Amino acid sequence: MLKVGVIGTGSISEFHIKPYLASGEAELAALCDLNGERLAEKGRLYGVTRLYSDYRELLEQDDIDAVSICTWNNSHAEIAIAALEAGKHVLVEKPLCMTVEEALKVEAAVESSGKVLQVGFVRRHGDNAKLLKKFVDHGELGEIYYAKTSCLRRLGNPGGWFSDLSKSGGGPLIDLGVHMIDICWYFMGKPKPVSVSGNAYRKLGNRSHIKNLSFYQAADYDPAHNDVEDLSNALIRFENGASLLVDVSFTLQAKKDELYVKLFGDKGGAEIEPELAIVTEKHDTILNITPQVDNLKFDFEKAFYNEIDHFVSCCLEGRETIAPVSDGVQVMKMLNAVYESARTGKEVYL
After folding, report:
1. Strands 51-52 and 26-32, how do they pair?
2. Is 148 helix (H, G, I), strand (E, B) or coil?
3. In what order do the strands lie in the sheet with 193-201?
4. Buried-most residue among 166, 181, 254, 309 (CB within 10 A)?
């Protein structure tokens, strides 16, 4: 039985807590948060009595084997390194951290500790993604040389820490783009990135004046503070010649929200968003293939259950996770390069 503590009890923590409670191989032993009122409320809600306001005190508990880090991005590296040094396995929400320098320090801590660190690339754990990965791994798409992805919100700046650059490290790129870039890169075979040309725009702000259209708001939503970009785009080139085109927004003068992930190979193509579809050729004819499965779309909640189950089994069985720290480092290099390119107006070489 893996005894787990969850550090940070904001909105995303729900998607960690519930799967731990449902797991037959894990026990939710403790919760931690700086916000005492929220911590007490979550403790009552989930029947957890060991509550800590300081993560260091939680990490001192010898019977806790692992932690989920669900805090602001600016604390991911600090807490992950402390947890690893305390002998705990770590599941850290995406992004791994805020800078490449931090990412490399976390990677060094993983190597010296010998513990599992899993990065919260939850889209890798979706049932539709796991199915498509089988097709990709068996060469059905051939060489995937191009991918394009969009996650465009008309109105969707969550506010709170998401819109505070000092806590988040950025806006839609580091919050949404991290998922979109990662899932494409994952299916492309994780080629080495070599150059990035990117842009970031702050034109619309958080548009808190808009009425009649609801959107997701962070647990600590505050429209008064916003210093992150509202749109970012990038072209990423890889060592094998493949390329990835991405754009993401918190807010945009768009007719509707857009979400898609498209992969193009020399033998076939695929879409994983908005729903799973495969394209191929047979007998001189192009075919669109729709798998017969329960759900072609990404099931956000189910993917978290899959992710937590995978993390628990990796910790208990000593297996390597499908989202290791090395992947977190490479994705952080790409994210940081987009911001650097946007800032300098020049292509960045990695």
Report:
1. parallel
2. strand
3. 285-289, 277-282, 268-273, 258-265, 144-152, 243-249, 231-238, 193-201, 348-349
4. 181
- Pairwise CA distance, residues 25 & 54, whole Å: 26
Task: Tell me the CB-side half-sphere exposure of residue 38, using CA atoms within 13 A.
Answer: 14
What is the residue-wise DSSP string for 75-93?
GHHHHHHHHHHTT-EEEEE
Q: Please state, in angstroms and rounded to a whole number, the distance separating the CA atoms of residues 274 and 292.
A: 16
DSSP secondary structure letter of residue 140:
S
d(CA 10, CA 219): 6
Tell me phi and psi for residue 187, to 5 degrees.
Answer: -70, -30
Q: Which token pair is 41?
A: 């409320």
What 3-state DSSP class applies to 269? strand
Give the Å distances, CA to CA, from 303 to 16, 138, 278, 314, 324. 11, 23, 21, 16, 17
How far apart are the C-alpha atoms of 8 and 52, rounded to whole Å?
A: 10
159's tokens: 């506010």
Chain segment 221-278, per-residue pLDDT in tens? 888 889 999 999 999 999 999 999 999 999 999 999 999 999 999 999 999 999 999 9
**What is the separation of C-alpha 292 from the centre of its chain, rounded to a whole number of angstroms?**
27
Cα–Cα distance between 349 and 139 in angstroms, integer? 30
Give CA–CA dist 163/278, Å, rounded.
37
pTM value is 0.97
Per-residue CA distances from 69 to 55, 89, 168 (Å): 10, 11, 14
Q: Distance (Å, rounded) from C-alpha 30 to C-alpha 10?
A: 15
Q: Tens digit of pLDDT for each residue in 169-218?
A: 999 999 999 999 999 999 999 999 999 999 999 999 989 899 999 988 88
CA dist 210 and 240 (Å) reads: 45
d(CA 294, CA 284): 30
Alpha carbon distance 338, 287 (integer Å): 36
Enter the tokens of residue 104: 């490399």
Task: Give the pLDDT mean for 31-39.
Answer: 97
